[in-house]
Design goal:
5 helices, about 35% helix, VC0802-like, about 140 residues, single chain, alpha+beta, globular
């Protein structure tokens, strides 16, 4: 079970990020989660959205450099130590986490974590065996 993440390369200059989020908003695409890492000249914006195919098309048509990356998601109880337990389960199985970011929802008492790992299928199985609830795109659309 994986989630389609948009990876967007953004110039690090005034208005670029606002332009991307405005474009998505004008096309009725909701942001579910995001992360941005920057350097002096550019940023890497990672997005989980309500409709990844539509977002990909809209952004590409506007000349934005964007690609799809398959990531995994996991639903956690919103309490101390849950993320540590997820990372420990993956570490015991020898799975490297390249990056992660988390988000909360307005209506649930849970946190969600998006993880980029070497093998989504194996990592999802390991987390499910460890008692964690993997989430997919349909789960996120329901939030």
């Amino acid at each position: 079970m994986s989630i389609r993440q948009l990876t967007v390369f953004v110039e690090n200059r005034r208005g670029c990020l606002a332009g991307i989020t405005d474009l998505l908003a004008k096309n009725s695409i909701d942001l579910r989660a995001l992360s941005i890492a920057d350097t002096k000249d550019f940023g890497i914006l990672r997005l989980i959205v309500s409709d990844s195919e539509k977002a990909l098309s809209v952004l590409r048509e506007s000349g934005v450099l964007v690609q799809i990356t398959e990531v995994i998601g996991v639903k956690l109880s919103d309490r101390p130590g849950e993320l540590s337990a997820v990372l420990a389960a993956l570490d015991r199985a020898g799975i490297n986490v390249e990056y992660l970011y988390a988000f909360l929802t307005r209506t649930e008492q849970n946190a969600y974590v998006v993880l980029r790992v070497e093998d989504n299928e194996i990592a999802t199985g390991i987390l499910a065996k460890a008692g964690f609830c993997p989430v997919g795109e349909e789960d996120l659309k329901a939030l």
